[in-house]
Batch of 2 targets.
Target 1
Amino acid sequence: MQLIRNPRDFYAGLLFVAFGVVALVFAQSYPLGTASRMGPGYFPRVLGILLVSLGALQTLIGMRRKSGFPLEWHWRPLFILLASVALFIVLTTWLGLIVSALVLVFISSAASAEFRWKEALIAGAAQGVAAAALFVWGLGLPLPVWPPFFGG
Amino acid sequence: MELLDNLLLGFSIAVTPANLLYAFVGCVVGTLIGVLPGIGPVATIAMLLPITYGLEPVTALIMLAGIYYGASYGGSTTAILVNLPGEMSSVITVLDGHQMAKQGRAGAALCVAALGSFFAGTVSTMVIAAFAPPLADLALEFDAAEYFSLMVLGLVSAIALAHGSVLKAILMTVLGLLLGMVGTDVNSGMARFSFDRPELIDGIGFVAMTMGLFAFAEIAVNLERTMRAGTIADGISSLWITWKEFKQSFAAVLRGSAVGSMLGILPGGGATLSAFASYTLEKKLSKDPSRFGRGAIEGVAGPESANNAGAQISFIPMLTLGIPSNAVMALMVGALIIHDIQPGPQIMTKTPDLFWGLVASMWVGNAMLVILNLPLIGIWVKLLSVPYRILYPVILLCCAIGAYSANNNMFDVWVAIVFGFLGYIFLKLECEPAPLLLGYILGPMLEENLRRALVLSRGDYTVFFTRPISSAMLLLALGLLVLMVVPAIRAKRETVFQES
């Protein structure tokens, strides 16, 4: 007997139940109020209960109905993409927009199966300069362009 | 004639140099993302939203609107020439459009798509001008109870029209409503779900969330499949259509415009639904349905007119009731709020310039799009040869900087990363992110009106059913929910979306 017949439905259900539980736990500290004078905890609790109950129903459906094709996760491209953005955040204040944009473009390019490092390097450098020109010099975003120790 | 005066006012605003320029920019960008598969209007509008902060509100809206309906023009180009839909709304155009291209009639298909869209755009501009004011007048009579019921109806019908599982769409909407609660509660001043982060006091960054859910997650999913560039059908010899083709497509364009004008107003409707409905209608009405799928020009003319009409008509509920009917409109509401304009029926009376300027600009934009899409088609086709591996890092960088620029704060970029991660999981589990965005935008309004209605009725929940308009809307919502659960109808709804 297979427990999870449709992983898409099953895990989606669990995810929503988890969100509902988090909402309910935090909403405990918000005053409930009455129907005529609703407190800040009233509506979130209603939503939390909805998420938990309908999420549980979704989980049950995932255990009963079969799915057509298997669920496959490809974490590598996602993590490379998100890591490149995280690095961008950290590097921008330290090394300026041009370097951090180059790093973002270069690393995120590696998420593709058709990665070519020379091409990515050139594209990254070009986009770093273009981003600085458009967003900092053009639109006036308060971001450093060069690393601070360059005196820029 | 009040209507004429209003339209004249609108055109006087739409043709100022700045507004013309930004309408043009919007149309170009819209066509661009329409042509390129893998970037949707939602992600693009979120990306460009920060650029509009410094503009006049009307100019900002004109540009953003141009992106939306521009994408429905551009999407057809890729659908016809490369057998790949550039946008969801052009999925159906692939069927007959690409067949026509294979038979050497690519030019005719492109021509009928562009001219049909232009005709539909003209019709829907008139429809908006004629029907929006009375609807706004009606909405001015609405009290909190009516607004609450209206939003419930809006959310329920958005769920009804969402693709895939109904239960998942409901869950995504509820989660969106909950995400909308994050930040300071207006009534009590209490910070909810803010985890003691000062950045969350004003709520989750709307731009950052959209970028994560739509742009980051979509790129990750796209990278799983190898994005093969299709073979471009060559020989766009002549952009003219024959007299026979004109006769065949004329009625389809008329019907498509009507279908789009009706379905566009539905919450959850808009371009995609209208295109699907129009294709089904054309096939049903055709004397020889077997021609469909083998290059029937009606199969291009109808849906292409319908998707453009639907895209424009979906502005009506947003502009008159302040209620967004799809994810793009949710972004427009976000843009209005950023400009300190409260969306709702008072837009038309308080800022007639904004309303009529936007309506008139739609017609101007449609005229620009015909020029962009017919004589300049060669440029767009060349763009298709840019590989995805070059394209997506550009999108990623623009999103990262865009998320930062919303509040000049890197915290928003972290938010985008978190929602990118969540968005990927949602996409893999077949949970559409659009209902979540709608819920997020409507959440605070829904709670506010629920509270106010119950304060007025002293805690009596029957107020929603004793007021006639409110009760009618709630019953309609309930009816829709029941219909969705009935299996027979659900099966039918699946087939409508599966005919692609």
Note: Chain A has a mean pLDDT of 89.
Target 2
Amino acid sequence: MTARFAATTAARAGLLLALCLVVLLLLGMRAEELDGRGDLGNRLAGPGWSHPLGTDQLGRDMQARIAAGLRGTLLTGISVAAISGLAGGLAGLLSGLWRSWPDLLLQRLNDALMALPLLVLALAVVAATGPTRIGVVIALSVAFTPLVLRVVRASTLAVQQEGYVEAARASGATTWHVVTTHLARNVAGPWAVVVSTQVGGAALAEASLSFLGAGVGGGGSLGALLGAEAQTYAFAAPWLIIWPGIVLALVSIAANLIGDGLAHSASPQPLLPSASKEKG
Amino acid sequence: MILQLSPAANYLARRAALSALTLLLITIIAFILMRVAPGDAVLAAMARAPGEMSLSAEDIESRRAALGLDRSYPAQYLSWMGGLARLDAGRSITSGIPVGSEVAPRIAATIELALLSTLIAGLTGTFAGAIAAWKGGRFDLVCRTLALAGLSAPAFWLGLIVVIALAVWANVFIASGYAQPWEDAWANFTRMGPAALTLAVRPAALVFRVVRISTAGVLGSDFVRAARARGLSESAILWGHAFRASALPGLTALGAQAVFLLSGSVVIEQVFGIPGLGRSLTEGVLTRDYPLVQFLVLLFGIFALLANFAVDVLYMKLDPRVRLAA
């Protein structure tokens, strides 16, 4: 699977993009060292030689601020994907294996959580946890877990229908053996696709929360850089809004491409039938 | 069973019963979420108005008692549900107005935004998807790149860019507020148009992807080959045969996006200054207005369930296989 993953165009593009983001992060950290507190004589300067991405209303270098924001965004996105991936993965696997009343109860709860618009749910949880880094991670994990649970449970059910699993069961294999050899391998593909995509989804959702005033403030994420402060100066200095948004979109694109690559390498058939060739 | 239902009606009735159960769970989730946190509406009001910081401990207790916040959680939940049954969702803690009257004038804006975006996304996504699969080549590549960008760009950021670009380059400032379409159609269009377009970008991109893949699949299938062998023109094959079969998955994708549209409307309303349900929710969350947020979460849940239900019904109408399987 690893070889197939690396062979897909989507995976290559995604990994390349992720590498670019890391370079951006390192360059920004260098800029941060050079100009930690900003220079007030150079406020709202457009992109130029000394500040490649311009400066903000306090003369702080935008490249440095974006690097700091990107760090916060990646931290949040990866934490949320890891927590919801683990919680949803385990719950989905167990729920799909032992289909009795806890499964029924969990499915109804999951349906209810999924019926709520993601941001509405996340906002309501943030109201409870408070707009801190941990509060936001908890809120987004609550909002993102149901999808992982649904995907993992569905593929657990599907794999159990397979002939080879029935054959293993019939020949006296323990549940543990079935889980570790058959289920884990076949459920891992769809699980990895969802979780990798959720890094991008969580980054975008975090930005929306920040934008609404319910996220981490003070430049602690790319979304926080797009908050009310930047909007005040947006007409005079559009770069305050443009750069963080583009970097945020790149994070999401990288996560989506890597997810696409995983989906390609996890599914046995090519996703797109080569129909257009037959047309001629 | 005394009542003999057709299989389709039976299926829909089962879905409706499940939806009711989901709704009940949503009320519990909404209720619990607003209460697990430290602090409450009285403390939040104090933090907002520093003049009232001098409230003594007894004052705070009496205010809590007046708002009913001193009772046990089950008692609070039951009284809320009892009120809902009598169509009374309580009063907003911040404004003192009944929640229903506070929310009612805001529903139209949010629904119009969601419907307009659905329409825009459905039309552009489906047609672009079908044409991209049919033509391939450069057009396909451009559409796919745009779709990837549209999927990845945060909706509120696109909105900000639209607002800034219009103001800086065209000197057009989008007015905030909402005008009823039947009262002032032009004012309604100029306010809702840019917002709906921005909100439609992501669902359009998703519908495009789904329709493109399914059209490519259908174009390679036997009945299309047969149609081609009969000498039908390429455009007759695309619009007469392939399009109908490939639009269905697009519809499903669009239906799945209904819940996203409600989510997206929260931020888009903030960007474009539209006084809709999403803005009420944001304000309610920041002021910890329990009755308001509880009611809005419930309302968003109802909208989402209705949207899913509508997609089910539409799908059964369009796809005979679903009707038979049900």
Note: Chain B has 14 helices and no strands.
